[in-house]
Amino acid sequence: MNIWGAAERLGISAERLERMLGRIVRTNDWPEPRLMRFDKAVSGIEAGTVVFDDGDIVYGYPKIRRAMMLAPAIKRHFSGGLLVEEKMNGHNVRVARAGGRTVALTRGGFICPYSTEVAEGQIPSEIFDDNPGIVLCGEMVGPKNPYVPKDVYSAEAMDFVLFDISRKGKRDMEGSKAAHAIAEEYGVRSVRLFGSFGIEEAADEIREIVEDLGSRGREGVVIKDPENLLSPVKYTSSESNCRDLEFAFRYYNDYGQDFFFSRVVREGFQAAEWSDAAAEFEARCLRLGRSMLRPMRETVEAKIAGDEIVQEAEILVRDLQTAVDFEEHYRRMGVRAIFEPPRAARGGFLVKIKRLVLSTNDKTGSVIQGQLW
To answer: Angle 85-88-92 (CA atoms, 0-180°, nearest 5)?
Structure first.
């Protein structure tokens, strides 16, 4: 890989890029094509940015900031009308053509073999033939998702859902209108667009949308500027916050405290802004408390019974080599997991994965044996 050429395209000095190699910037030669990826953000370059061996750059997807108080945030951030889309609950990928093939990059800049197989099956190659350099930004969702398994979507396995597009070598996203136009032209599934709203009525309309989404197990919304001149804002349902807590408290010692704290704080702001009546507030309190205590209790009881605490997931692959490659992908990311033998199924092969949750296992085991906190 040409360090000088990559540095010039990134807008940094070759000497600085060379100093970052092996620390902030790492090289990956598997799976092909070979690339450099940024583990952390530096010099305005987003984490997850990838430089392929041929010099093509796919920048990391920018972080979307969150509204805590919906109405004030809308009035402060947006100046005209706005668009509201569904925020899907899965894992973020950027799909591009590299080395003559379709690849799906995770948020961290890894080529995920499983996500790549899904993208190859669901995204027509013509989209890359007709639009050289296009990068499809989307979410992989569905029950057969090893990163975020959710059975609230209509997918039988895992689906790619488009929410934005960009171009190789460009940091900017092209926005909702461009993404939906591409999706319609090529028959790619895209996120649900709820419509366009004025500033004054937006908060009330979004609240109704979010309450409905929450009641159906969905995550929330992303609020966007129609002309793509302002950065988008996200807002999530109470049910989504609590489901995140329910999952994380099951593996309480493997998640950072900020993960727990931020979701509890969201609940406080939402309860205040929405002026929960007594019964609504009581229901929110019970939902929040149950989401934390029940999984913790189940984890402790399982460990007392002598069981190992594991995260279980299942993937559906068309090609058995994809499962082999995905196991290697996990290993390279430092994830310890047990892959059970594949089972034939409609559409391919099912593979159950048991991800080892070492810190929670060790901590829970020592505490039930009398270790002090």
So the answer is: 115
**Residues of the domain holding 17:** 3-58
Say how many domains are in the chain: 4
User: What single letter denotes the amino acid at residue 309?
Assistant: I
Q: What percent of the chain has pLDDT over 70?
A: 100
Q: Are residues 79 and 214 in the same domain?
A: yes
* Same domain, residue pair 324 and 290: no
pTM of the model: 0.94
Task: Please check whether residue 148 is in contact with residue 85, taking contact to mean a CB–CB distance below 8 angstroms.
Answer: no
- Closest listed residue to residue 94, CA positions, set 160, 181, 11, 144: 160
What are the structure tokens assigned to 244, written together? 């995140």
The tally of CA atoms less than 13 A away on the side-chain side of residue 273 is 17
Could you tell me if 215 and 280 are in contact, meaning their C-beta atoms sit under 8 angstroms apart? no
Spell out the long-range contacts of 119-123 with Cβ–Cβ below 8 A and sequence spacing 24 or more. 119/93, 119/95, 119/160, 121/318, 122/159, 122/160, 122/188, 122/189, 123/95, 123/160, 123/186, 123/188
199 shares a domain with 324 = no
What token pair was written down for 148? Answer: 């975020």
Q: Which of 2-16, 155-169, 198-212 shows the lowest per-residue confidence on average (mean pLDDT)?
A: 2-16
Contact 166, 137 (CB under 8 A): yes
pLDDT at 156: 83
Cα 112 to Cα 263: distance, rounded to the nearest angstrom? 28
Structure token pair of residue 124: 């027509």
Are the C-beta atoms of residues 235 and 221 closer than 8 Å to each other? yes
Strands 337-339 vs 348-356: parallel, antiparallel or unpaired? antiparallel
User: Percentage of residues in the chain with pLDDT exceeding 90?
Assistant: 91
Q: 215 and 72, same structural domain?
A: yes
Q: Which two tokens stand for residue 251?
A: 């593996």
**Token output for 348:** 């391919």
Q: Look at residue 245 and give its three-state secondary structure.
A: helix
Cα angle at 304 between 303 and 307, to 5 degrees?
Answer: 40
Q: Which CATH number does the domain housing residue 42 bear?
A: 3.10.450.740
